[in-house]
Amino acid sequence: MDIVTDERLARELDAYGCALTPQVLTPEECAQIAGLYDEPGHFRATIDMERHRFGAGQYRYFGHPIPPLIARLRAAFYARLLPIARDWAARLGQPAPWPDDFNEWLDMCHRAGQTRPTPILLRYRENDWNALHRDLYGDLVFPLQVVIGLDRPGHDYTGGEFLLVEQRPRAQSRGTVTLLPQGHGLVFTTRDRPVRSSRGWSAAPVRHGVSTVRSGLRHTLGLVLHDAT
Question: Would you say 215 and 157 are in contact if contact means Cβ atoms under 8 Å apart?
Fold first, then answer.
């Protein structure tokens, strides 16, 4: 597991609201995590997206204890993305409540009533999709999150591109499409991101989703960096 926040990553987040990381999981680690989906004891909840009109497909929230590899990934991404989060908050004139230590941040979430873990394992089959949404879960929000591809696009599945739609100030919305390579993470904005405007910096609201899977089976690991109410 090697996570590097380099200048390219920061530039792409500034330009597009999302950026691919280098490979952070081996194919073996990807298979190990995807295989957890069929072990319900790891999860606190299972969501049927069609039932809730979120799209079609299913995902599961990990419960305590979070598997060690996933917990390490979450803490590592928090540490690397914290400088970007603070920079964005400064540009927008917003509070930056995030401490240096990830466990301290989780303690803050828990004291605010956000006690439920939020790492997600998602499974999409043919014709499944995910509607545009945000993963907020409470008043305390970390502004960046990560999704990691666990299967091979074009081999294990087709379609299923990651979608990011940004509502630009006084302009039409802009969409960005990304195909997730196996083992790579896509860092993207949780709620909004700073964009230049005639009056300085403005917050551009952003939502994300997944296009229709045309064939095969697609698993992803979602790492939201705050806990839920």
Answer: yes
* Encoded tokens for 178: 């990304």
Instruction: Determine the 3-state secondary structure of 224 from DSSP.
Output: coil
Mean pLDDT by 10 residues, the chain (229 residues): 68 93 97 97 96 94 97 96 95 96 98 98 97 94 98 98 88 90 97 87 94 98 97
Cβ pair 1, 73 in contact under 8 A: yes
pLDDT for res 4: 53
Q: Please measure the distance between the N-terminal and C-terminal CA atoms of the chain and give it in whole angstroms.
A: 30
Tell me the two tokens of residue 9: 């990553």
**Cα–Cα distance, 171 to 165 (Å, whole number):** 13
Query: Which pLDDT score is estimated for 1?
Result: 52
Instruction: Measure the CA–CA gap between 137 and 118, rounded to whole angstroms.
Output: 9
Distance, in Å, from the CA atom of 185 to the CA atom of 77, rounded to the nearest integer, reads: 10
Structure tokens at 202: 């403005």
DSSP E strands, 49-166: 55-56, 58-62, 120-124, 129-133, 144-149, 157-159, 162-166
> Which helix or strand (DSSP H or E) is residue 52 part of?
none
**Amino acid, single-letter form, for residue 26:** T
pLDDT of residue 200: 86
Task: Identify the pLDDT of residue 167.
Answer: 87
Angle CA 207–228–97, to nearest 5? 80
Evaluate if pTM is beyond 0.90: yes
Picking from 91, 57, 6, the residue whose alpha carbon sits closest to that of residue 222 is 57
Q: How far is CA 85 from the centre of its chain?
A: 14
